[in-house]
Amino acid sequence: MVGNSNRVEHYGGTERSTNITIFSSESEYMDAMSQPPPEVHKVCLPPSTTTFQKLRHRLSEIFFPDAPLDRFKNQTWFRKFILGLQFFFPIFVWAPNYNLKLLQSDVVSGLTIASLAIPQGISYAKLANLPPIVGLYSSFVPPLIYSVLGSSRHLAVGPVSIASLVMGTMLGEEVSYTDQPILYLQLAFTATFFAGVFQAALGLLRLGFVIDFLSKATLVGFMAGAAIIVSLQQLKGLLGIVHFTNKMQIVPVLTSVFQRTDEWSWQTIVLGASFLLLLLTARKVSMRNKKLFWVSAAAPLTSVILSTLIVFCLKSKLPMVKTIGHLPKGLNPPSSNMLYFQGSYLGLALKTGIVTGILSLTEGIAVGRTFASLRNYQVDGNQEMMAIGFMNMAGSCSSCYVTTGSFSRSAVNYNAGAQTVVSNIILSATVLITLLFLMPLFHYTPNVILGAIIITAVIGLIDYEAALKLWKVDKIDFFTCLSSFFGVLFISVPLGLAIAVGVSVFKILLHVTRPNTAALGNIPGTHIYQSLRRYRESQRVPSFLIVAVEAPIYFANSTYLQERMLRWIREEEEWISANNESTLKCVILDMTAITAIDTSGIDTICEVRKMLEKRSLQFVLANPAGNVMEKLHNSNVLESFGVNGLYLSVNEAVNDISSSWKSQPFP
After folding, report:
1. Can you give the residue ranges of the STAS domain (predicted)?
2. How many CA atoms lie within 13 Å of 367's alpha carbon, on the beta-carbon side?
């Protein structure tokens, strides 16, 4: 029954079609048995390969599923050099074909996202407890780096709310940004450096699958919880409270709000509420009519300009309204000398960098792929990891903190007609002009407007429709979402994320250790065998129990599967006894979905065969995968199954074994 070719071979040299028959009476059975024996195909081993070849193939599938080196085959050395440049620097892919028409579109989109990025940069820096100017610095250097290394045409790079919140929370728990501002700034830049190193390493080593442990369910709950915490934190600015908690849990934040009612400023409340209403209205208008995307894009900068003019003109009458104050003019100062590589807080910087690095990487790649799918082009995940990583490493040395692709800015960039990453260059140029000449204009910008901008930006992260879909589709995913959501709200941002990741890993372990199994029946008139529970038209085959296992058999689930197999047999015998059906003679294990097996799994199959043999039941394997077949063969297990113990399909097993019973009286 076992061959050494990876091709299906036929006994007799020609292939004939065979049909499965459901026997309902002895005469029917005897008539069928008088027919010629059915055709049986060989079950073949995969091609013989060495251990090194197997290891090489496996590593290739793990780390190079997209076969990135195929493009270099059969090319001249010069062509390989050019392809190498294009591989590491995507700018060499699009730059030779760039023209004036593309530039016109990119200039419009670049100026549009700049109008959003400048106020958001200042606001998100405040969210991370950093000086506002750092937010503008982070909107200048990183987009330039990404324009050279990035593969997404529409990703708009800069500070983002989630990474800013996490950095501010994790660093603020151990270092006070008011009492130790220099140390806090050093740790922020160092965390950014570690985030970049981690991100670039994932890309270079092609370990992008690490971020897949942040499932969509985890992110939906995490972002919703973070959005609520961020919004509540902005009540400090919207209400004019001076003494406010530094904690990020919902209870301390609300407690701080209502314990400090004596510090509420009606002037600040009126100004903040008015502009918050303006921003939310602009967002609603753009959501209803995609052609009016520019309304929500221009609203933040418009709000900054108007609020600044109001405070400047009425500064004597609005003494309670706090403003940003002085912002230094000039380019990003170097900060490599501020990186903190020794001392008691090094572990904090490393931990913060890894967490913010994973979150920003997940968001950036997800956003890039989203808009790439809309324009039908490919975004290289590993290339994006390297681009974002090197971008943050360079940023940490030029007074920037963690940056990535922002969904809100990228959506504006896409709708504004961006064609290439030149829009990021235009964004950087606009920020450069702002840094050199326009910084004094922000002196009277009220802090309350920054809070309103942040609330408007993060409110879109609350995706209740996605949560409802999780409830309908997968209850465990919904539980993961809730774990992340409530963990962030009531415990802390990093612990809430860790809890959700833990629940996701538990789900994976649950699927591995308790895989699905099913009893199969034949769909009349076909060779198809499907679950008796799912398909009402499927029928049991007399004297056969056909069981399918829908997962690899590993040490983690082998004991469970052995117990479940014996339970299937016991339940089948009880059903036969209750319905006076034919005696059970054969158990067939459908191995179609068993994609892998280890030594524990092989031992389990041997144990099941011995148990069934003692009960005079035949145990048969059907359609093992190539690597499973190879391991069964190498372990010499197949010898104990005999000639009629291994088949290419369930249909052939049923037909051939039924034919071998023709000399026996019908049960």
Report:
1. 534-657
2. 27
Q: In this structure, is the dihedral angle defined by the CA atoms of residues 363, 369, 372 and 377, taken in order, positive or negative?
A: positive
User: 3-class SS at 477?
Assistant: helix
The contacts found for 613-617 with CB under 8 angstroms, 24 or more apart, are 617/569, 617/584, 617/585, 617/586, 617/587
What is the b/e burial string over 480-508, where b = at least 16 CB atoms within 10 angstroms of the residue's CB? bbbbbbbbbbeebbbebbebbbebbeebe
Closest by alpha carbon to 494, among 174, 94, 107, 57?
174
CA angle 210–216–217, rounded 5-degree value: 120
pLDDT (0 to 100) of residue 35: 55
CA distances from 304 to 152, 230, 255, 327, 548 (A): 30, 20, 30, 15, 64
Q: Tens digit of pLDDT for each residue in 57-69?
A: 777 777 777 677 7
Annotate 93-146 with three-state secondary structure. Answer: HHHHHCCHHHHHHHHHHHHHHHHHHHHHHHHHHHHCCCCHHHHHHCCCHHHHHH
For 587, the enclosing helix (H) or strand (E) is strand 586-590
Place of tokens 């069981």: 547
The partner residues of 158 in beta bridges, in order of sequence, read: 404
Q: What angle in degrees, to the nearest 10, is found between the helix axes of 100-127 and 422-433?
A: 60
Neighbours of 16 (CB within 10 A): 9
Q: 3-state DSSP call for residue 632?
A: helix
- C-alpha 227/C-alpha 467 separation (Å) is 15
Phi/psi class of residue 547: alpha, beta or left (left: φ > 0; alpha: ψ in -120 to 50)?
beta
DSSP state of 43: E
Burial of 657 (0-12, 13-18, 19+ CB in 10 A): buried
pLDDT tens sequence across 248-299: 788 888 888 888 888 888 888 888 899 999 999 998 998 888 788 888 888 8
- Please compute the mean of the pLDDT values over residues 624-633 and round it to a whole number: 89
Phi-psi region of 417 (alpha: psi -120 to 50; beta: other; left: phi over 0): left
